[in-house]
C-alpha cells in the first residue's frame, strides 16, 4: 500500500520482491501495526520520501540475508521499528544518542515500510521478539511500546503520572506502570467513556476527560495526543520540579501560557525516535511482565480504512494490518 502524494489514499501496487543489500534482510511480513506517525506521514504533517510504503511496527520472518547480515538466520521472527538505519559517524551516533542521528533512515518514512507483504530492513536495527507474543499482538510493541517506553523513562522515578491521550502507547505503558506500582491518571478526549473504561480496566487509578483537573498533583505527565493545547494543561497539573514529556513526532501549535505555570523548575521536553538500546531495555523489561496488547486487525488492502478509523479515534488499542 503505497503513498504517492500526501492527503491522498494509499494505493495498492504490485512490485518486484526487493533483494537485500549488504547488511540487510528480506522479511516476509506477518503483521504491521498502524501508528499515529503513519497518519502524520499520510496526511502530510511531516515530509519524508515519496512514493513510500508506510508502516514501522513490522513483525515477520527473515527469508533471505544479504552479505554480512548474519544476526538473524532465515526463518527467524524479527521486528522492524521506526529507526531503520543511522550513519554511525555523527556526534550523536558517537555519543550513544543515535535517535538524534544527523543522517538517519526511518522505516515507512524515508525507506519503505511494512504496509506490504515483504520488506527489506537493515538487520542490525531489527529486534528479536519475545516468543510469548503472537505476531499481531507484538506489532504495537515496536513503536507504541518502544517509543512510549522512552517517553516513560524520561518521567524518571515519578510515581504519579498523567497520560494525556489513551491510545496504543498509553495502553501498553499503563501496564508497565502498574507492574512497577506507579499510579497512572488517564486523560482522554472529553466524554470518551469507552477510552476511560479501557484505561481503568488496565489498572489506571483514575480516568477522565482532558478538560478535567487531575484529582492529585502529578509528578510527571506524558502527552501522547498530538494536541499542543494539552501542554499548558498538563503543566498546570504537575507539581514543583515535575516534567511534561511530549511523546509524539508532530503536534498542533502550543498556545501561550503564563511563566508562573513553568516556574518552580517544571520542565517541558520532547522525545524523538528510539535507540537500539531502548529496544533491548524495553524487551528485557517486559519479558516477565503480564503485558497484553489490544488490537483490531484489518486486511492489508484495507489500510486506508484503518488509517481513517485511527484518525477519527475509532480504534481501541492498536490497529494492525495483516497481508
Ligand atoms: Zn549518525
Ligand atoms: Zn510509530
**How much strand content do the residues show?**
15-25%
User: Tell me, what's the shape?
Assistant: globular
Number of helices: 9
First-last Cα distance: 10 Å
Number of strands: 15
Helicity level:
10-25%
Which radius of gyration do the C-alpha atoms yield?
A: 19 Å
The largest β sheet comes out as: 7 strands, mixed
Structural class given helices, strands, pairing?
A: alpha/beta
Distinct compounds present: zinc ion
The residue ranges in which pLDDT falls below 50 over 5 or more consecutive positions are: none
Report the order of strands and helices. Answer: EHEEEHEEEHHEHEHEEHEEHEHE
Structure characterization notes:
The chain has 323 residues and is of the alpha/beta class. It contains nine helices and 15 strands. The longest helix is centred in the middle third of the chain and has 12 residues. It is globular. The protein starts with 23 loop residues before the first strand and ends with a strand. One zinc ion binds next to helix 2. The site of one zinc ion has 5 residues, from loops.
Helices and strands, with pairings:
Layout: E1 24-34, H1 36-43, E2 58-65, E3 77-80, E4 83-85, H2 91-94, E5 105-106, E6 118-122, E7 127-128, H3 135-138, H4 144-154, E8 160-164, H5 168-179, E9 183-188, H6 193-201, E10 206-209, E11 218-223, H7 230-237, E12 238-246, E13 267-270, H8 276-286, E14 295-299, H9 303-311, E15 318-322
Helix pairs in contact: 4-5, 4-8
Amino acid at each position: 500500500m503505497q503513498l504517492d502524494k500526501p492527503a491522498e489514499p494509499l494505493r495498492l501496487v504490485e512490485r518486484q520482491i526487493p533483494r537485500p543489500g549488504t547488511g540487510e534482510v528480506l522479511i516476509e511480513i506477518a503483521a504491521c501495526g498502524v501508528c499515529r506517525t503513519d497518519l502524520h506521514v499520510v496526511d502530510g504533517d511531516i515530509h519524508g520520501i515519496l512514493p513510500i510504503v508506510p508502516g514501522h511496527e513490522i513483525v515477520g520472518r527473515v527469508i533471505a540475508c544479504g552479505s554480512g547480515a548474519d544476526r538473524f538466520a532465515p526463518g527467524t521472527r524479527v521486528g522492524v521499528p521506526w529507526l531503520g538505519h543511522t550513519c554511525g559517524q555523527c556526534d550523536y551516533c558517537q555519543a550513544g544518542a543515535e535517535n538524534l542521528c544527523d543522517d538517519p533512515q526511518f522505516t515507512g518514512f524515508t525507506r519503505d515500510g511494512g504496509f506490504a507483504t515483504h520488506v527489506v530492513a537493515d538487520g542490525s536495527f531489527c529486534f528479536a521478539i519475545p516468543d510469548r507474543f503472537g505476531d499481531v499482538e507484538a506489532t504495537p510493541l515496536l513503536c507504541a511500546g518502544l517509543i512510549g517506553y522512552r517517553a516513560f523513562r524520561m518521567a524518571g522515578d515519578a510515581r504519579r503520572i498523567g497520560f494525556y491521550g489513551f491510545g496504543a502507547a498509553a495502553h501498553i505503558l499503563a501496564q508497565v506502570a502498574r507492574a512497577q506500582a506507579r499510579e497512572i491518571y488517564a486523560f482522554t478526549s472529553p466524554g470518551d467513556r469507552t477510552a476511560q473504561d479501557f484505561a481503568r480496566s488496565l489498572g489506571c487509578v483514575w480516568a477522565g476527560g482532558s478538560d478535567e483537573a487531575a484529582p492529585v498533583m502529578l509528578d510527571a505527565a506524558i502527552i501522547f495526543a498530538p494536541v499542543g493545547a494539552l501542554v499548558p494543561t498538563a503543566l498546570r497539573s504537575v507539581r514543583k520540579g515535575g516534567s511534561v514529556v511530549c511523546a509524539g513526532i508532530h503536534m498542533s501549535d502550543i498556545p501561550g501560557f503564563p511563566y508562573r505555570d513553568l516556574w518552580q523548575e517544571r520542565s517541558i521536553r520532547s522525545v524523538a525516535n528510539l535507540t537500539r538500546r531502548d529496544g533491548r531495555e524495553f524487551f528485557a523489561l517486559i519479558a516477565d511482565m503480564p503485558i497484553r496488547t489490544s488490537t483490531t486487525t484489518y486486511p492489508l488492502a484495507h489500510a486506508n480504512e484503518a488509517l481513517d478509523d485511527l484518525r477519527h479515534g475509532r480504534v481501541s488499542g492498536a490497529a494492525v494490518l495483516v497481508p
